[in-house]
């Protein structure tokens, strides 16, 4: 099993390093056996990061290490990584079994197994037993991705790299494939790096994740940390659908430090010493009509019924506010508040 380290990895595309800067000082450690996700909007550098780990791109600067060993100059086929891409990329003229066995042309099956035994074992692992003789065009999209996963895993690689493997599938298939991928990953205990632009998916499936923006890592943490304690405004808005506020520190009023925004003061649980300008966020679900503290009037613009809850988009003093309420509001004007403990101060920006 393998620990993966990226040390200050930068990547500039184009000859002589004058083209697009895709990665800047990316520093990540993926622990042995971890399911680690790279998440961020289109163009933030997720795929480039994965391609440098796989060896399809060379970093312009920095180092990549598998279990402490630098892999600079090692070609992809000698890195012991299994890769699954967004598009199925199966060989159409080969059967399912031949596709899965393909990776074993260059590498002996593990544990002295025959190729046939290993292929059968992998098809069982991805719940496709008995389908080895089919052609790829006789499979559904979800089944094809499972074949691609079985092919990537057949040589028992040290690392599994998955680049948006579910993005071509409909919502229901995505969920079932997601469950299968996480089950297989934890069964095998293989160190895995998963790429997605879908923040909900990233929070749902990862042991830890890195939120990327403009070629940089904004924050690395467990899903709960990233969601509850975003380190930057970008993470707060991208991951948590948060309401972000900015104001001026105004000393204390009794128990709580105060922040002034447009002449109104708000109580927060804590503000780091020496902070004059305070940025904090409050999750939509923490703004409630029943809260006693920090009341603010909101003008409702739209309501979306989501089943268990209603997402309300509104404005307070011209600022966009998102609420998550138990019911559709009866009036376009309502007042909500938040507890001081529910405000999280963003300390890096
Ligand atoms: P997406 O979610 O859309 O796939 P991404 O987060 O994976 O995006 P990358 O594909 O890594 O982002 O791209 C990062 C940046 O590098 C973008 O600005 C992109 O245009 C640029 N880029 C990617 N590949 C190349 C290339 N081969 N040559 C030049 N620039 C590239």
From TrEMBL:
Keywords: ATP-binding, Molybdenum, Nucleotide-binding, Transport
Membrane topology: Peripheral membrane protein
GO terms assigned for molecular function: ABC-type tungstate transporter activity; ATP binding; ATP hydrolysis activity
Catalytic class of the enzyme: translocase
Domain ABC transporter: 4-239
SUPFAM superfamilies, per database record: MOP-like (SSF50331), P-loop containing nucleoside triphosphate hydrolases (SSF52540)
Database matches in Gene3D superfamilies: 2.40.50.100, P-loop containing nucleotide triphosphate hydrolases
Catalyzed reactions: tungstate(in) + ATP + H2O = tungstate(out) + ADP + phosphate + H(+)
EC annotation from Swiss-Prot or TrEMBL: 7.3.2.6
A GO CC term attached to the entry: ATP-binding cassette (ABC) transporter complex
Principal location: membrane
Cross-referenced Pfam families: ABC_tran (PF00005), TOBE_2 (PF08402)
PROSITE patterns: ABC_TRANSPORTER_1, ABC_TRANSPORTER_2
InterPro entries the record matches: AAA+_ATPase, ABC_SmlMolc_Importer, ABC_transporter-like_ATP-bd, ABC_transporter-like_CS, Mo/tungstate-bd_C_term_dom, P-loop_NTPase, Transp-assoc_OB_typ2
Subcellular location: Cell membrane
Family: Belongs to the ABC transporter superfamily. Sulfate/tungstate importer (TC 3.A.1.6) family.
Entry function: Part of the ABC transporter complex WtpABC involved in molybdate/tungstate import. Responsible for energy coupling to the transport system.
Quaternary structure (record): The complex is composed of two ATP-binding proteins (WtpC), two transmembrane proteins (WtpB) and a solute-binding protein (WtpA).
The protein's name in its UniProt record: Molybdate/tungstate import ATP-binding protein WtpC
Organism: Natrinema altunense (strain JCM 12890 / CGMCC 1.3731 / AJ2)
